[in-house]
Amino acid sequence: MRALMSVVPGGPETLEWVDIGPPTVGKGEIRVSVRAAGLNATDLLMMRDRYQDKVARPYSPGGEIAGVVEELGAGVHDLAVGDRVVAILGSGGLREEVLLRSSDAILIPDGVSYEEASVLPIAYASALHALEDRARLAHGERVLVLGASAGIGLASVQIATRMGAEVVAACSTAEKVEIAMAEGAVRGLVYGEGAQSADRHELRRLFADVVGADGADVVVDPVSGSLADPAARAMRTGGRFVLVGFAGGVGSVPSNVVLVKRAEIVGSALGEHLKDHPEHLRTLLGQLFEWCVEGTLRPSVTSVIPLCEAVSGLDLLDRRAITGKVVVRLGE
């Protein structure tokens, strides 16, 4: 079968196509024909050896997949051939077939497509974990979301809106703010990118003006970098700052502001959480699937590409030239 492999550290241009043999099913495992694989920033970090969990090469990128069960290993009684399942792999998804422990496979309900299901385990489950478990978001609270047009950021906009929050979207361009507002944000701000980004004092004023005098109850930050400071200052007294990533570099949250505002600063890393509580993924996906089936949440899949174009999809992600989620489609 065909697989896209990382053989040396680097960006998407370093990936190679390799023909490999079919996987052999062991006890307690299932063989799954991959129908869709979601692409994530963690794929890029792993490829460059910048992720906390190192993967031995050669390996396939692709941390989340949806597919159909093709074969059951000995001792597997809770699934059947033909079942539609979704799972977090960590890596290995950009190939035609994968092996899973049966306990890691979660059934996809009717009414949810493979493409939609494939983006839920990482970005959407991470957003729900950050908002519900870590921020303890309540109906009617105000949420400031950084990087609000893609990945965890856009998922946070959608989920916070579904939970009854007032969402303020912070994005690098006006076009991206419009995307976030189409998904439920009530207003937004443009912080710019590269040479067009505002200076520190301008960012502080901008965030304060748009978020409002009362401040944000919750900040969801997948960007960090130079945005952590003005976002923290835009919190209300007793606010919660939830760090879910650092796509813009390691930032600095002002300790004096945290002290005076009596704020909470919490990390939200779903992957680390699931190492201790793997069963919680079923709870998170159960809620997400329920919303999808009832029509109150529609995962933002903005680009679906075939396996042969997976390198181009990763390149779009690497250049931040995409909003929503990129999905690689395989099979029929």
Commentary on this structure:
The longest helix has 15 residues, at 120-134. The chain has 332 residues and is of the alpha/beta class. It starts with a strand and ends with a strand. Helix 3 crosses helix 4 (151-162) and helix 3 packs across helix 10 (280-294). The relative contact order is 0.16. It has two domains: 2-119 and 299-329, Quinone Oxidoreductase, Chain A, domain 1, CATH 3.90.180; 123-271, Rossmann fold (3-Layer(aba) Sandwich), CATH 3.40.50. It has eleven helices and 15 strands. The strands form three sheets. Strands 3, 4, 5, 6, 7, 14 and 15 form a seven-stranded mixed β-sheet that branches.
List keywords for this structure.
6-stranded parallel beta sheet, 15 strands, 2 domains, 332 residues, 11 helices, Rossmann fold, Quinone Oxidoreductase, Chain A, domain 1, 31% helix, 7-stranded mixed beta sheet, alpha/beta, GroES-like_sf
